[in-house]
Design brief:
208 residues, alpha/beta, Nucleotide Excision Repair Protein XPA (XPA-MBD), B Chain A, Rossmann fold, 9 helices, 6 strands, 48% helix, Rossmann-like_a/b/a_fold
Length: 208
């Protein structure tokens, strides 16, 4: 057994092995450990096997029911693997688990490799009223095409009957800011603003 398994089970493996959602595992106490695969990234969250098992039994009723659910999800993963041959086995497992575990972000319409990185920061106290605004904060992909997160925002706005607005910050005081970088960002936003405007979407550029 690897040291990480002795210390605990990483969140992604825990969700797959015990058929749990993000919301399920976040009810448990986790220990944090430096991620050996991404030393500069966020710490790994590790969970105790016995606590995961107890939680899964409460959710599904018994270990036998949990095993039945595992088998059902394995069949689902096999189906995903057939339709998405470009994914490796681990990505297939994560995608299927994420979609089936009842995660609140599973319906955003993102590709699996992006969807698994999404988390809900704050859920609304009540369902937003029809006609409310959906705001997409454009920070990385400064374009109106080949932008899955923007596509997801479009779908969410259409589903809610809401207006879509796009906002983009131009950070002048970040460590890597210089004249050439700011010029590059502004030119990209100008092109994105033109492209989105043709589709009837406003892009608001914010310069602090």
């Amino acid at each position: 057994m690897s040291k990480s398994r002795k210390d605990g089970i990483p969140k992604t493996y825990a969700k797959i092995q015990f058929c749990l959602s993000d919301r399920d595992v976040e009810s448990l106490t986790a220990t944090e450990k430096k991620n050996p695969y991404s030393p500069k990234g966020p710490a790994m969250k590790l969970y105790k096997r016995e606590e995961l098992e107890r939680l899964a039994v409460r959710k599904f009723g018994s270990l036998e029911k949990l095993e039945e659910e595992r088998q059902r999800r394995q069949e689902r993963r096999n189906s995903v693997a057939k339709t998405r041959p470009e994914l490796d086995s681990f990505s297939v497992a994560k995608a299927a688990s994420h979609a089936e575990a009842g995660d609140p972000d599973a319906g955003l319409g993102l590709p699996p490799l992006l969807s698994e990185r999404v988390r809900v920061v704050r859920s609304p106290a009540r369902e937003p009223a029809p006609g409310s605004l959906v705001l997409y904060w454009m920070k990385a992909a400064l374009r109106g095409h080949h932008n899955p997160a923007l596509d997801a925002a479009r779908r969410e706005a259409a589903k809610r009957g809401a207006e879509l607005a796009v906002a983009a910050p131009v950070l002048l005081d970040c460590p890597h800011a210089n004249a050439r970088r700011v010029k590059f960002v502004l030119e990209g936003l100008r092109d994105a603003q033109r492209e989105l405007g043709a589709a009837g979407v406003d892009l608001l550029v914010h310069v602090p």
